[in-house]
Amino acid sequence: MQFRHLRPLHVSELSYGTWLTVAGGIARHQAIRCIHAALDCGITLFDTANQYGAGEAERVLGEALSTHPRDRYLIATKLFFPVGDEPDRGLSPAQITKQLERSLQRLRTDYVDLYQCHRYDPETPLEETMQALHRAVESGKVRTLGFSEWTADQIERATEIAETNGLTPFSSSQPQYSILWRKPEAKVFPACTRNGIGNLAFSPLAHGVLTGKYAPGQTPPPGTRAASGKMNIFMETAGRHYRSDYLLAAVEQLQPIAADLGLTMAQMALAWVLRRPEVASAIIGASRPEQIEENVRAVGVVLTGETLERIDRAVGNVVVWD
Description:
Layout: E1 3-6, E2 9-12, E3 14-17, H1 21-25, H2 28-40, E4 45-47, H3 56-65, E5 74-79, H4 93-107, E6 112-117, H5 126-138, E7 142-148, H6 152-165, E8 170-174, H7 188-194, E9 198-201, H8 245-252, H9 255-261, H10 265-274, E10 279-284, H11 289-295, H12 305-315
């Protein structure tokens, strides 16, 4: 495993996400096996959120990690969305205090390494959110701060507030980013670079499509995400229809490129994301330990300019830009 800097943390280039699988998409014992496999493969950063599975992802992650020394791993969690059927949401000071305490209890830890705003809250003054997050850092319950899916303007405003008021600045951004979803390149990556913020790319395999396991006009293989009623809905609500035959036909054109490199489709897709210096880590999910073992082989792979051009020619018509 290789590591990159995420002020003030050093994070593994691949991190393990708990969004759908650990939140109930696979059996609890299998989720714990995957978490332990990630640790064995050198992954040190584990990403979750209070909302995932109404707290279940945090509970399973906390149980799995509790058998290992706390200094061996980093925990990143989030708040914003309602947890289960609770009505409250957002980034108010009261919510930050409440949800942080609940996350710590479920995760079985005294602190989290990264606390992230899952989305921007237009109903709470950003100054109040930044002040409450700063107090969480000062309390020792949070090491550093981040956000997910914020715009460049929101990033710049938060940075200005932190600098003006002597508050803890954000260290991380968590955008969707993959060969098929390149929106962060236009504005978010430049804003993060200007302000010393690293990026944790989620869905680097485009919700599993870039593994090559789905073919146009064919039923998804049993046991895959697209075949799961619990997990496949998000493949249609994440900005585009990731199961459309039109998109899958384009993705099929990536297979010979990966084969020429001696890589799996997933390894090539992860190497493509990690080629960007703005990316501190790519967040992978898995339903089986073998998938993690395969994915970590992408670390250290360098794609040539010729390969990048071939990839662009193959999928150019289905890429989502800014």
